[in-house]
Each structure stands twice: as structure tokens, then as C-alpha cells.
Specification:
Number of strands: 35
Largest sheet: 4 strands, antiparallel
Radius of gyration: 22 Å
Number of helices: 3
Helix content: under 10%
Strand content: over 45%
Shape: globular
Structural class: mainly beta
Distance between the termini: 27 Å
């Protein structure tokens, strides 16, 4: 059977993995299983730790969402007939609430994590919807879930305050929305759409800018970490950097030959990484819009791309070549190639000390089709040098030795 999901705890010490109807929690450092959670009647599709790491929220094809108290591994609450579409941003920053779409109520509901009781109904809608909190927890933005977007009749996003009151309806797209997210200060929202545009809104619902420039569906839109710029990716093979204040098009990022799946700023705001089905990963200068590096070492579709927390590295996967590769962003050099059968995704842990990759192994046997997760300990150069010196003493490294990277 397949490992369907995985999620890190906020401190990166534990990972939750779903297999069939069971969720297991493992210690990342030791690789030991520390808890087994049973209660669902069908395959577990999603699992997320609460912001304090004390609870785990799981959803299943059985139509139930369950909240577990990890301190005693007892099921705390069972919320039935809820959508499987939620993320860590669905937890409120104060760690008290979770926003979920209810398939039975046909509404987005906010629940108290401790009691399991509904706090409020945010709004009613006939399609599955995702909800995300602003970083300060004062607002929530809701829009149709990506799974529904292709044939979705609802072309609006909505902003709610912490009291569950509708602040504004973001109405301006004429086709389904593909993403919605807050600016870092929580004052603005950017949405992307199949209508080839992205829109910047005040949280009061005023359309600040309609970003026109793409010729096909805009697949993603997000603010830079400083909130001054926006990057959009599109199925027209380009990404565009916009001035968030004026809506002016700053740079068109041309280099891919096939549709883009995503574009993301690095945490330090210096770079943008774009991924595409053309097999290339491009690192761009986030200010000038010039190509910094084109990473062509991967063959086959790029299923995932992610920056390390310090923005120095990028990890990507290629299922065709059965590899996970790590690149140095500054030099563009491939520093590590890890063998991994059919890797579908890879990412750095939040502390940047490990890399995890999910492998979908298609071999058919008595056990059927199955997946597994592999971990590698990621040592940066100085850390490895310090560890070596602690063993052998004051060794004199050559410049070549000092730039080596190590994964165990």
C-alpha cells in the first residue's frame, strides 16, 4: 500500500506518515516509530501537526477529520464529513482553531481545537473550499480548492475577520481562482486565475491592481518576503515579477519552453525559483529578473522544487532519472545526487538539517504497489569540518576539501 501523506512537526523532530487507514509518527533523528494512531475506516489522505506540535489533524476517504492529542495519543475530536483540503495555514496562529470545509454543511467552518466545537460558519458554498489565515491571525481568506478550480462556477475569494464576519468579497476574475494568499503584513491579498490575470486586493475588497500580462492560466501568485513584489507563474511558459505597490510589470522571466507549475521567492528575498514541465529549474535574480542559473541536470518532469531555509540550496526531484539532487544556488553547481526510486517530492526540514524524499515504487509484488520515505542528514561545509576536527584534531584542510558537502 502507498504512504499517502507526510508532515513535519513544527520543531522538525517528528514526522507523521499515513499508510492505509493508519498514521504513524516517527522520530526523525533516530528513525524510531514513537506512535501509531488508528481510528479511520479508509485511506488517510492528509495529516498536519498543530502549531504547538501537541495535536495532529488527520483526514480520510471515510469522510472524517479527526483531531488527536499527541501527549496521550487519544483521539480528541472526530469531525465527520469534512473536505480533505487543508494545510498548516488552516491552523490559526494562536493555535486555538482550525478552518475546514464541511461537505455535509456545505460551508467553511472554524472549530475550536480543544473542544472540537464549531466556533462559527464562515460562509456557505456548494464546492470544496480552502481557507488560510493571515500571519497575524486577524483575517482568513477563502477560495475554491485547486481540485475544484478547473470547473468551478465560483470566481470569487472572500476575506473574513477573526470574529467570523465577512469583510469583503474579492470579485473581479471571470474564471476560477487557482490560488490566494496574504501579503506578509496581512493588509493585502493576491489571487491568480484561469482568466490569465492576477489581482491585488485590499482586505476591504478594493481592487488595487489587475495584473495583466500573461497569455494563459496563471497557476500561482505570491508576495515576496518583504511584501514589495509579487511573482506569478503561468501556463504561457513565463513568470512575471510585479511591483506590489503600483502593479507595474517589472520583469518577464522568459526561459522555459513549457508551462510553469510554480514560482517562489527564496526566504532571503534574493532569488526566484521556477519549475516547469520542460525539465528545467531556473534560478532568477529577484531584483533584476535576470537568469542567475539554469539547472538542466534533471531529465523528466520536475515534481518538486524547494529552497533550504537559509536560501543557499535548492532541492529538486526527477522521477525519470530516479534521483534527488541538491544544487548550490550561488554557484549553480550540483553538489549532491541521491539515488531514490521514483521520487515524487523532496524538501528540506524547517531547520535545514535534513532532506526527506517520498518515493513511489511501482513494482508489483505480493505486497502490491508501495511507497517509502528516505531521509538524509545534510551537513554544511563548516559543520562537517568541525565534526571532523573533533575526531582527528587540528587538521589542515585544503581549499578543495573545505567546499565539499556531505549527506549521510
Amino acid at each position: 500500500e502507498n504512504v499517502a501523506i507526510h508532515s513535519y512537526s513544527p520543531d522538525s523532530k517528528y514526522i507523521a506518515m499515513g499508510k492505509d487507514s493508519i498514521v504513524k509518527i516517527w522520530n526523525v533523528e533516530s528513525g524510531e516509530e514513537v506512535r501509531t494512531i488508528k481510528g479511520h475506516g479508509d485511506i488517510v489522505m492528509s495529516a498536519f501537526f498543530s502549531r504547538d506540535g501537541k495535536s495532529l489533524l488527520t483526514s480520510s476517504r471515510d469522510g472524517n477529520v479527526m483531531l488527536w492529542n499527541l501527549e496521550d495519543t487519544k483521539q480528541n475530536q472526530s469531525l465527520t464529513n469534512y473536505s480533505m483540503g487543508f494545510s498548516q495555514n488552516s491552523f490559526s496562529p494562536d493555535k486555538k482553531h482550525i478552518a475546514l470545509y464541511s461537505t455535509s454543511e456545505k460551508a467553511v467552518m472554524e472549530y475550536d481545537i480543544q473542544t472540537g466545537k464549531p466556533v462559527r460558519k464562515l460562509f456557505s458554498v456548494d464546492i470544496q473550499t480552502t481557507a488560510s489565515y493571515s500571519q497575524d491571525g486577524k483575517f482568513i481568506v477563502t477560495s475554491p480548492s485547486l481540485a475544484q478550480a478547473g470547473n468551478c462556477p465560483d470566481t470569487m475569494a472572500r476575506v473574513w475577520n477573526a470574529n467570523g464576519e465577512l469583510i469583503s468579497t474579492l470579485q473581479g476574475h471571470n474564471k476560477a481562482i487557482t490560488s490566494s494568499s496574504f501579503s506578509p503584513d496581512g493588509k493585502y491579498v493576491v489571487t491568480s486565475s484561469y482568466d490569465t490575470t492576477a489581482c491585488v486586493w485590499s482586505i476591504t475588497g478594493k481592487l488595487i491592481h489587475k495584473l495583466k500580462g500573461h497569455k494563459d492560466c496563471v497557476s500561482s501568485a505570491s508576495f515576496s518576503p518583504d511584501g514589495k513584489r509579487i511573482v506569478t507563474s503561468s501556463m504561457d511558459n513565463t513568470a512575471i515579477i510585479w511591483d506590489a505597490k503600483t502593479g507595474r510589470q517589472m520583469q518577464v522571466l522568459k526561459g522555459h519552453t513549457e508551462p510553469l507549475s510554480s514560482a517562489v521567492f527564496s526566504p532571503d528575498d534574493r532569488y526566484i525559483a521556477t519549475s516547469s514541465i520542460d525539465n528545467d529549474l531556473i534560478i532568477w535574480d529577484a531584483v533584476s529578473g535576470k537568469k542567475n542559473k539554469i539547472l538542466r541536470n534533471l531529465k523528466g518532469y520536475l515534481f518538486s522544487v524547494a529552497f533550504s531555509p537559509d536560501s543557499r540550496y535548492v532541492v529538486a526531484t526527477s522521477t525519470e532519472n530516479h534521483i534527488v539532487v541538491v544544487f548550490d544556488v550561488e554557484s549553480g553547481e550540483q553538489i549532491i545526487e541521491l539515488k531514490c526510486m521514483y521520487p515524487t517530492s523532496a524538501a528540506f526540514t524547517p531547520d535545514g538539517k535534513q532532506i526527506a524524499a517520498i518515493s513511489l515504487y511501482p513494482m508489483i509484488s505480493r505486497m502490491g504497489k508501495y511507497s517509502y520515505i528516505r531521509f538524509w542528514r545534510f551537513y554544511q561545509p563548516q559543520e562537517l569540518i568541525d565534526r571532523f576536527r573533533s575526531v582527528v584534531g587540528n587538521y589542515s584542510f585544503t581549499p578543495y576539501e573545505e567546499i565539499k558537502y556531505y549527506l549521510k
